[in-house]
Amino acid sequence: MHSLKRRAANATRPVPIPPQFVRTLLEHIERFGVAPDGRLFRNQAGNYVDAAAYGTTWARSRKSALTRTERASGLAKRPYGLPHAGISFWLSSGVDPAERARRAGRSTGVLFRRYAKFLDGRSWRCRAC
User: Where are the domains of the chain?
Assistant: First the structure.
């Protein structure tokens, strides 16, 4: 297991999730348990899930959940893009910057430096501009 980016090896970060997802997670743990080291997902032998297996499963999920047009657009092309998409959505939805930063585990400065490009073209929303 590797540490969080630019954090101490033993650092943790709370990840707030909606109650319905907490229930789903708890049901998963009840059904499948966790690995001795606390991992939720492991292969049949109890080892780390190979990256290729994640890719295969992700591709099947996209095909099942998205329309042909959405798949062609590259929407949710890789699981790694989901945090970026979530933060971008919060930015464009007007979620409080401090709350966005807390949920993302980043400072508000980093959020605006890294994700401000998603605000381009939104001046039409400002009636006083």
Answer: 18-47, 50-77, 80-121
**Dist. CA 64–CA 70, nearest whole Å:** 11
Residue 104 neighbours by CB distance under 10 Å: 20
84 near 111, Cβ under 8 Å?
Answer: no
Helix axes 81-93, 108-115, angle to 10 degrees: 100
Cβ 40 vs Cβ 29: under 8 Å: yes
How far apart CA 51 and CA 46 sit, in angstroms, is 15
Coil, strand or helix: which one is 37?
A: coil
pLDDT digits over 54-104, tens only?
889 899 999 999 899 988 988 888 887 777 777 877 777 888 888 888 878
**What are the start-end ranges of the E strands in 1-129?**
none
DSSP 53-91: HHHHHHHHHHHHHS-HHHHHHTTT-STTHHHHHHHHHHH
What is the model's pTM?
0.52
Q: What angle do CA 67, 69, 72 make, to 5 degrees?
A: 110
